[in-house]
UniProtKB/TrEMBL annotation:
<dbReference type="InterPro" id="IPR011032">
    <property type="entry name" value="GroES-like_sf"/>
</dbReference>
<dbReference type="InterPro" id="IPR002364">
    <property type="entry name" value="Quin_OxRdtase/zeta-crystal_CS"/>
</dbReference>
<dbReference type="GO" id="GO:0016491">
    <property type="term" value="F:oxidoreductase activity"/>
</dbReference>
<dbReference type="InterPro" id="IPR013149">
    <property type="entry name" value="ADH-like_C"/>
</dbReference>
<dbReference type="GO" id="GO:0008270">
    <property type="term" value="F:zinc ion binding"/>
</dbReference>
<dbReference type="InterPro" id="IPR041694">
    <property type="entry name" value="ADH_N_2"/>
</dbReference>
<dbReference type="Pfam" id="PF00107">
    <property type="entry name" value="ADH_zinc_N"/>
</dbReference>
<dbReference type="InterPro" id="IPR051397">
    <property type="entry name" value="Zn-ADH-like_protein"/>
</dbReference>
<dbReference type="InterPro" id="IPR036291">
    <property type="entry name" value="NAD(P)-bd_dom_sf"/>
</dbReference>
<dbReference type="Pfam" id="PF16884">
    <property type="entry name" value="ADH_N_2"/>
</dbReference>
<protein>
    <submittedName>
        <fullName>NADP-dependent oxidoreductase</fullName>
    </submittedName>
</protein>
<dbReference type="InterPro" id="IPR020843">
    <property type="entry name" value="ER"/>
</dbReference>
<feature type="domain" description="Enoyl reductase (ER)">
    <location>
        <begin position="18"/>
        <end position="338"/>
    </location>
</feature>
Length: 340
């Protein structure tokens, strides 16, 4: 397939003071670049909508692994696409190859050949490779080192990361898996479709009491995607020696009163010391090899049917400006992607 002279991109026009709205992300036309030496031109098919964008477009984005977005720049993030042109002297990734990369939110992207990952032709669900759940896998295997028979709590269990984290915990040997969500309907789907043993709906009474009722002996491992009051309650229900893997900060990213780069939580440090609880934040860069290991195991589990990848696809790049708002509103279950 040949590329046109113009392609559409989703741009940031201003850094919002509160939660972003569609008007912050217009779709604009831009010249389709040509690949240079060592580069590929990729026609994107789908891209991921992820909560971390709230942080990247905020005024508190400094100090993170990826640079903040500035007004006038196109958004970016995990994308799945087909190579349609190869730059001079570029070998190893021929035209027609399906790849993943990090320049989503646009129809066409020029990507360095060494920055793409080739998708196997027989992959059972290429869209699953856009998921950022490798962080939960890394937290379970590297930070908390989940042991067989242990009880696991996943906060934000109905999101793109949480909907896979609980399944992965079970596959790694967890004896009981409990999740949290803010929707009774999602709670039912987590139990029925994803095998959660119990799901606590936030807002149905004191959260710490509900977590304790769901696992009276407490939690050995906590995978926290949310922070805030959910982390506070989770620590109140933790067992002696519990390990907490901090994966996300949705409470800060979804809070209209915060700027997107902080997620305050009240922690009883006396309880943490008394129970010898450990807390650690997960960063991809500190655990080389996890991403490739995750992709291999994810592909195997998808192929065998041991794991499912719940996701929602919004058709058309014109849906992209409102997609992040829909994510903040909790309108969808699992991973959210836009199909170009």
């Amino acid at each position: 397939m040949s590329a046109p002279s113009l392609g559409r991109e989703v741009h940031l026009v201003s850094n919002p003071a509160g939660l972003p709205a569609p008007e912050h992300f217009p779709v604009a036309e831009a010249p389709v670049p040509r690949p240079g030496a060592g580069q590929l031109l990729v026609c994107n098919r789908k891209f991921l909508v992820f909560a971390g964008l709230r942080t990247l477009i905020s005024r508190e984005a400094d100090g993170f692994q990826v640079p903040p977005l500035k007004p006038g720049e196109p958004l970016f993030g995990p994308a799945l696409g087909e190579v349609v042109a190869v730059g001079p002297g570029t070998a190893g990734v021929p035209v027609g190859t399906l790849v993943t990369h990090l320049l989503g939110w646009r129809e066409y992207a020029v990507v360095d050949a060494d920055a793409v990952r080739v998708v196997p032709e027989d992959h059972p669900d290429p869209v699953a490779l856009l998921s950022t759940a490798s962080a939960a896998y890394g937290a379970l295997t590297r930070l908390t080192r989940l042991r067989a028979g242990e009880t696991v709590l996943v906060t934000g269990a109905a999101g793109g990361v949480g909907s896979l984290a609980g399944q992965v915990a079970r596959l790694l040997g967890a004896g009981r898996v409990v999740g949290t969500t803010r929707s009774p309907g999602k709670a039912e789907r987590l139990r029925r479709e994803l095998g959660y043993d119990a799901v606590v709906v936030r807002g149905d009474g004191p959260l710490a009491d509900a977590l304790t009722e769901a696992a009276p002996d407490g939690y050995d491992v906590i995978i926290d995607n949310v922070g805030g009051e959910q982390l506070t309650a989770a620590l109140e229900a933790a067992r002696p020696g519990a390990r907490v893997g901090l994966v996300g900060a949705l409470s800060g990213q979804f809070d209209p009163t915060l700027a997107g780069g902080t997620a305050p939580a009240s922690i009883d440090t006396f309880r943490v010391v008394k129970l010898a609880v450990t807390l650690a934040g997960y960063q991809d860069a500190e655990h080389p090899g996890v991403e490739e290991e995750w992709r291999e195991r994810l592909t195997h589990w998808l192929r065998t049917g041991e794991l499912v990848h719940p996701h929602v696809t919004l058709p058309g790049i014109d849906r992209a400006p409102g997609a992040l708002q829909e994510l903040h509103q909790g309108r969808h279950f699992g991973t959210l992607v836009v199909e170009i």
